[in-house]
Amino acid sequence: MTTPHSVRIEKLVAGGEGITRLEDGRVVFVPGVLAGELVEISLSEEKKDFGRGQLISVLEPSANRRVPPCPHVAEGCGGCDFQHIERRIQGQAKLAIVAEAYARTARMEIDPQLRRLTDDARRTTVRMVAGDDGIIGFRAHDSHDIVPVSNCMIAHPLINDFIANPVLEGAGEVTIRVGARTNNIGVWNHEGKLANGLPAGLKTGERASISEIVGEHTYKVSMGSFFQSSPEAAELIIDSVSRRLDKLGIEGGYMVDAYGGIGLFSLAFSQRFDELMLVESSESACKDAVRNLAECAATIEQANMDQWDAMEADVVIADPSRHGLGKMGAASVIATDAHTIILVSCDPVAGARDAKYLCDAGYKLGEVEVLDIFPETHHVEVVAAFSR
Question: Most buried residue, 158, 177, 234, 346, by most Cβ within 10 Å?
């Protein structure tokens, strides 16, 4: 073990870690801390100009620190990295992280607004693993070790009911997805063999689908397709996008739903726009979108946005993966010559970088809203409006 260092945490940054500096000027990233705390750390990774620290003890705790409410955190579960932060403060921490990402990456000063889910919203999709004994759980932090979990505090009750009984016969990995408002349950075993005696009516396999209700619409979601963390989260994102469109007075015209997935935005806004085009690279999601948008004036194109042959549009709603638009994706969005772009980012740094791409192309950044839809974790959704 390296020599311990007593350091003061300056702030939290994207990824949820705290940042501090050693006496020699090296920046060190430390998990499990809060801004302002004096902590003792050891260095788990050392580079020439930065390092990564491991928390040994908290010498001067923040007033916003708490004992993690989930017992699995003490057992090493790596699923929820913000459980040491008071719940009411987590959103404020995420606001600061987003503002810092924009300032550092895009050189933009923003004053984002915060909205959060109600406390009864729970994750409807989880990915879990089991060892040779078949006992299911989550990976430990920075490890392949498995922490057994039969009840997860952020998972939907349908998931907890399901994992209370054997899911796998031995070692394996599964995705479990439920329809919170339809009571559908699906499981996709990536590795291993499903246990006997699983509930009747269970949907199984990558191509199996469940139904979920979001707002006034019912969506089909295949096990192999991406979906938001809960229907409540999906509704909050839709509402945030809708508010941006309302403030800009946008009604009618042609909308491109970039990285459109199963058609969440296309179906939600099918009455607002005259025509829709959904662009999505995932074959599974495109098949879901065909079903979900069957009654809409929508065109679905399976394509990677980086290589998409852009067409003119009035509005683009873009919801890329954690990698963001990137230079090529941003170029495709810009090539639509849309007067309005709504960017939904699930990584603050990628979102800030993409904002700079758009602003460098002549767009003006409007309101930025931070959605705290992943309680107990550093993950966040950022909705930003651009117009020209």
Answer: 177
CATH number for 88-119+230-387: choose from 3.40.50.720, 3.40.50.150, 3.40.50.1450, 1.10.287.1080: 3.40.50.150
How far apart, in whole angstroms, are the C-alpha atoms of residue 263 and residue 266? 5
Q: Residue 74 burial by CB count (10 A; 0-12/13-18/19+): exposed, middle or buried?
A: exposed
Residue extents of the structural domains in the chain: 5-65, 88-119+230-387, 125-220
* CA gap 276, 382 in Å, rounded: 23
Residues 6 or more apart in contact with residue 100 via CB below 8 angstroms:
11, 13, 14
For the segment 296-347, what is each residue's pLDDT rounded down to a tens digit?
A: 989 999 999 999 999 999 999 999 999 999 999 999 999 999 999 999 999 9
Model's pTM, two decimal places? 0.95
How confident is the model over 108-157, as pLDDT tens digits?
Answer: 999 999 999 988 899 999 999 999 999 999 999 888 899 999 999 999 99
The separation between CA 35 and the C-alpha centre of its own chain, rounded to angstroms, equals 23
Contacts by residues 308-312 (CB-CB < 8 Å, ≥ 24 positions apart):
308/279, 308/332, 310/335, 310/336, 311/256, 311/277, 311/336, 312/254, 312/336, 312/337, 312/338
Q: Which DSSP symbol is given to 4?
A: P
Question: b/e for 233-264, b at 16 or more Cβ within 10 A?
Answer: bbbbbbbbbbebbeebebeeebbbbbbbbbbb
- Domain 5-65 is classified in which CATH homologous superfamily? Nucleic acid-binding proteins (2.40.50.140)
